[in-house]
Design brief:
Blueprint (H helix, E strand, L loop, with lengths): L1 H26 L4 H22 L20 H17 L2 H29 L3 H7 L22 H6 L3 H23 L1
Helix pairs in contact: 1-4, 2-3, 2-7, 3-4, 3-7
C-alpha cells in the first residue's frame, strides 16, 4: 500500500500545490510586517533550491557535494522553508497546519520512494545515507567535497528550470501584496 500511495503522491504533488495556492490566497491575511518577516524563510528556501539544482544530476549519480553534503534532500528542505515562509506571510495558523499535514502525507512517502530507487540503482547510496541526514542539515558537510566536477553548474540549474521557483515566489508575493492593498482600500 505504501508503494501505491507514494506513486500517487508523486503524481499529485504539483497539481495539489496549485490547489493549495488557491486555498492559501483565500485564507491569507497578509500585513506588510509579516510579508517582510516571511522573507527570512522564503529567500533562503529559494537560494537553497537554486543552489541544490545546480549540483544534482538526477537519476545519473548520487550527488554528494554542495548542499548534498549537508542533507540528502536540499530541494525539499528549500521547498519547506519557502512554504512555511509563505504561511508566515499569510498570518494563518490553518495554512501552517495544512502545510505540515501535506508535507507529512505527500513528501514523506515521496522521499522514501526516491530513497528506495536510489538504493536499488546506486551501490554507494547506503553509505551516503548513513553519513548524511535525510532532511535537517548538519552545519558541517558530512561527506568529502569532490574536487573533480563537484561544483555548482549553471547549466544544471537551467536544465532543471529552477528559476520557476523564483517566478512562482514573485507571483505569490505580488498576489499577497495586491490582497493587502485591496483589503486596505475596502
Amino acid at each position: 500500500m505504501a508503494g501505491g500511495w507514494s506513486r500517487i503522491a508523486r503524481r499529485i504533488r504539483v497539481p495539489l500545490g496549485f490547489v493549495f495556492a488557491a486555498f492559501f490566497l483565500w485564507l491569507a491575511r497578509p500585513s506588510a510586517q509579516f510579508l517582510a518577516w516571511s522573507l527570512l524563510l522564503v529567500l533562503p528556501g529559494l537560494w537553497l533550491r537554486g543552489y541544490a539544482s545546480g549540483y544534482v544530476n538526477k537519476n545519473a549519480e548520487v550527488t554528494m557535494t554542495g548542499p548534498y553534503a549537508h542533507t540528502r534532500n536540499p530541494l525539499y528542505l528549500g521547498s519547506m522553508l519557502m512554504a512555511f515562509g509563505f504561511a508566515l506571510a499569510a498570518r494563518s495558523v490553518w495554512i501552517a497546519v495544512a502545510l505540515a499535514v501535506l508535507f507529512a502525507v505527500i513528501y514523506v512517502p515521496v522521499i522514501r520512494s526516491e530513497e528506495a530507487f536510489l538504493r536499488s540503482r546506486f551501490a554507494g547510496y547506503d553509505a551516503y545515507a548513513e553519513r548524511v541526514p535525510r532532511l535537517v542539515p548538519r552545519l558541517r558537510p558530512t561527506m568529502a567535497q569532490a574536487a573533480d566536477g563537484g561544483g555548482f553548474s549553471g547549466a544544471l540549474y537551467r536544465k532543471h528550470r529552477e528559476y520557476n521557483a523564483l517566478i512562482g515566489a514573485a507571483a505569490l508575493y505580488a498576489a499577497l501584496i495586491l490582497k493587502l492593498l485591496w483589503r486596505g482600500a475596502s
